[in-house]
């Protein structure tokens, strides 16, 4: 009998033909990648997709790949490019993509140990490895998430319950952080029902790191006012400048005042692998919870974050739920099930996209790449410091370099740098982003692609000089 659903099961010959077309496309993309623009400001912005609506009738793989190339892959930021120096770049390791392919074809459900013991063991093994990197105990709770936002939500929901922050006391329960903490933490507080908590933005030093003395003073003042200090959020690599808060000192203050101590190391956490990065992250192991994103520091494609929490029992109490139809899973308890430690029940087998490249490349390759990024940031800082007209106010602590051009006359500095970033982006050979620091419009070099090397930085510096000169000449004419 030839049921219509058989159409969803291509033959081996059909599978191989489509797979070959896809692999040809991928190899062509990777071959051309070094010469592709890092940014394309397309007027159409992918709108051509709408001319091929979702319909009953199929199209060929060649047509599909044509739409993918022109409407998806070409416009906007080429995220896989070594010239992507804006925001915090994601990775794009080829072996990681193969891991996703294998996970999708085999379609293992990695939420419950009973259903996929090997897959859950793999993910928990990866989490234990991460815990060892930051000095967490091997029995810490952990979860591989879609990114830092969900990882932060898991951590803060656990912190809420551990500190018994109920609805009655939320308006008096105080959170301490800095103005440079990532916005996903504000979102996580709101989603976790903590949006009415008072949030104290503690002052920062001249390198944009939290001042411990100011934190302690704020805690004492809040206690004196009858409020309830309960959560300290520190950063190990801020998005704006890559700053690392004084983790050890803050940990002592959190312990003294019995605050839950959360460290956002989504960007910076994996620099603990690098010889010169590890000392900079000293004290991270004092935290109660840490977020670190493999899709940043381990160059994995977008879609893989991680949370580590010391209090396994509380994490399970916050997130565990058992439905009657899941009763068969109760017999398998050798490994913690991811579904018991996060909001997710249905989940992708994310671990394979990290396990495969770690096994095929070896950890040493990642260690060397991370050390290179730290060295490149120092190199860029030194070069910019010596370029006429450029101002670099902060020595990079990790791999983000903040700078601006200060024109001699004829145009205000903020306006000039707004024109400069636009000119660099329209040029397209590299992509840089911007931020505001103390009212000053600043440009950012965020160096975290495994494909970014010294020649990329040299190219970015040449383009900056060229565009700055052009804008100055225009402003004088």
From TrEMBL:
Keyword annotations from UniProtKB, A to Z: Aminotransferase, Decarboxylase, Lyase, Pyridoxal phosphate, Transferase
Highest taxon above the source species: Bacteria
Coiled coil: none
Gene3D superfamilies, sorted: Aspartate Aminotransferase, domain 1, Type I PLP-dependent aspartate aminotransferase-like (Major domain)
Modified residues (N6-(pyridoxal phosphate)lysine): 296
Family listed: Belongs to the group II decarboxylase family.
Name by which UniProt lists this protein: Aminotransferase class V-fold PLP-dependent enzyme
Species of provenance: Rufibacter latericius
Species classification: Bacteria, Pseudomonadati, Bacteroidota, Cytophagia, Cytophagales
């Amino acid at each position: 009998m030839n049921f219509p659903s058989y159409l969803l099961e291509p033959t081996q010959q059909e599978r191989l033909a489509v797979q070959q077309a896809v692999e040809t496309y991928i190899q062509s993309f990777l071959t051309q990648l070094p010469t592709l623009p890092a940014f394309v400001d397309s007027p159409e912005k992918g709108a051509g997709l709408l001319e091929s609506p979702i319909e009953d009738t199929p199209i060929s793989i060649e047509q599909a790949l044509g739409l993918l190339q022109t409407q998806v892959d070409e416009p906007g930021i080429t995220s896989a490019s070594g010239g992507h120096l804006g925001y915090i770049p994601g990775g794009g390791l080829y072996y990681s993509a193969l891991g996703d392919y294998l996970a999708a074809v085999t379609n293992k459900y990695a939420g419950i140990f009973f259903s996929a013991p090997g897959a859950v063991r793999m993910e928990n093994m990866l989490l234990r490895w991460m815990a060892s990197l930051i000095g967490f105990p091997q029995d810490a709770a952990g979860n591989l998430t879609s990114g830092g936002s969900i990882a932060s939500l898991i951590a803060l929901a656990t912190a809420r319950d551990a500190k018994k922050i109920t609805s009655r006391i939320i308006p008096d329960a105080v959170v301490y952080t800095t103005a440079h903490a990532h916005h996903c933490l504000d979102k996580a507080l709101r989603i976790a029902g903590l949006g009415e908590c008072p949030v104290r933005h503690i002052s920062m030093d001249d390198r944009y790191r939290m001042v411990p003395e100011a934190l302690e003073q704020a805690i004492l003042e809040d206690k004196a006012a009858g409020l309830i200090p309960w959560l300290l959020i520190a950063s190990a690599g801020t998005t704006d400048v890559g700053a690392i808060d004084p983790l050890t000192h803050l940990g002592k203050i959190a312990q003294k005042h019995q605050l839950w101590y959360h460290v956002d190391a989504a960007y910076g956490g994996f620099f603990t692998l690098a010889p010169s990065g590890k000392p900079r992250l000293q004290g991270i192991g004092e935290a109660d919870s840490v977020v670190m994103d493999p899709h940043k520091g381990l160059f994995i494609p977008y879609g893989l974050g991680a949370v580590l929490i010391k209090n396994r029992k509380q994490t399970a109490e916050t997130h565990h739920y058992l439905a009657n139809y899941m009763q068969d899973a109760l017999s398998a308890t050798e490994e913690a099930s991811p579904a018991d430690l996060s909001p997710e029940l249905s989940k992708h087998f994310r671990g394979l996209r990290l396990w495969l490249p770690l096994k095929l490349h070896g950890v040493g390759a990642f260690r060397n790449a991370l050390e290179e990024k730290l060295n490149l940031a120092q190199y860029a800082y030194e070069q910019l410091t010596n370029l006429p007209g450029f101002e670099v106010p902060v020595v990079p602590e990790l791999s983000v370099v903040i700078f601006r051009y200060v024109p001699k006359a004829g145009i205000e500095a903020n306006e000039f740098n707004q024109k400069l970033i636009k000119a660099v982006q329209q040029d397209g050979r590299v992509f840089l982003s911007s931020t505001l620091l103390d009212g000053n419009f600043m440009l950012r070099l965020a160096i975290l692609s495994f494909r970014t090397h010294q020649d990329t930085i040299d190219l970015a510096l040449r383009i900056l000089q060229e565009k700055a000169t052009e804008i100055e000449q225009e402003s004088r004419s």
